[in-house]
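Hey Z.,

So I finally got round to the nicotinamide-adenine-dinucleotide thing we talked about over coffee. Here's the setup:
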Amino acid sequence: MESRMATLAIDRYTMLIDGEMVSTNDTISVRNPATGEVFAEAPAADAADLDRAVAAATRAFPAWRDTPMADRKAALVKAADIIDANARELASLFTQEQGRPLPGAKAEVRGAAMWLKATTMLDLPVEVTEDSDTRRVEVHHVPLGVVCGIVPWNFPVLLAIWKIGPALMAGNTLVLKPSPFTPLTTLRIAELIGGCFPAGVFNVLCGGDALGPLMTSHRGFAKITFTGSTATGRRVMESAAKDLKRITLELGGNDAAIVMPDVDVDAIAEQLFEGAFHNTAQVCVATKRLFIHADIYDQLRDRLHQLVKDTPVGDGAEQGNRYGPIQNEAQYRRVLGMLDEARANGLTLLEGGSVPERGYFVPLTLVDNPPDDSRVVVEEAFGPILPLLKFHDIDEVIERANDTEYGLAGAVWSDDVEQATRIAHRLDTGTVWINQNLQSTPFTPLAGAKQSGFGQENGVPGLLEFTRSKAIFIPKAPAGSIPEAEVAAP
Ligand code: NAD
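And the result:
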């Protein structure tokens, strides 16, 4: 097994298996979405590489499980500090592979380091379900074994950290796979922080389309934590069912934001705009359907149209661009297809300014009050197309907002917070924001409803997803003197 160091100066990257950075004979090409050009080669792991990583993680598990929690936390804090100290270099690589302008790239890298540290403030609870004269019954939460983590391309660093932090802190070992579209920042982080953990505890594999299914069907994993599209999530669940692997699925969304007529349109327009177009609208919890009360519809539409026209979109490495390209060609073609279909169906598109011709750029686009059954309303575009939908009353808008297979998040905008809260309770989603957007914290679970997910990430509930319960019945009287239970365990 050849070992080599990856640096920014060379364009061949390596992956982390059993404490070593290793290369593969085959590679996958990584493109800069702002130019469409290949600028680096990443490893293409095969079944043998996967077996090696799982074997290393399996060997490392017992000692890591038995390492005191405080020591596991200290290793994660050290890793967080290293990521933060290298934020500038990592952000530049992030922009090259993901497309997001540098300030946003740096915010994700530094935010991920902060998140990792904050995760170490959580603790696994021990519940006492009985404490009587004869016995004490304790429920502990113990690690599962080797975890498989699979990450998408839209927030490649933060979403990897959402898996690395709780999986390792709970005492599991991990084999992580970034998206083949955005593997480099994760591989570089693996190289930087690999030494914080004993060999085999943290492994990062990189590969093409075949690697994900190989991982989900590998019998060495006790658990899969997956973030990606709903379509792939279904495949992951099917594959995991064969040997009853535990799963957490964070999937797609088609989030509604509801804007009531009492708002100050000028005061909130910019926030609504960012809530929809942040990261070029490639955000699972972005506003993807904006319901606007008829009384303020024209005013808010015109204000948003102005913002769309005034906002610079271009290469994220160049200063001044607020949004970058679509991250990859397949997604770019899909978004263009949705726009073509909208035009062909006579929908009114309100487009932003011009965008570079080279690379995967799409102008920010509003769709003026399309029918609820049009594709731009029904499907998650995952690109800068925002349908504006006019509504007249609360019952009507709640029914329309809930009329989707997804249930990730949603937002209500109103000066009447009590009324907004009542509306929030009626939305079938895992999260609702009132007068805010895109908020999440290391202490609050993100849990999709309906086809948006299965299980949750973050907070103690997210940490518990990397454990199983273990009840221990501890006697307080000598053996033979404890009364038989009236109802025996089945
Ligand atoms: P995707 O489902 O195409 O890919 C996600 C990951 O799964 C990638 O690493 C990919 O290589 C891997 N993969 C592909 N096929 C696989 C298979 N059969 N088995 C196992 N792994 C496989 O998703 P994407 O296009 O990278 O990401 C965009 C989607 O992710 C959007 O739908 C978005 O809403 C969703 N997302 C959800 C959240 C959340 O927290 N709910 C966060 C970010 C993104």
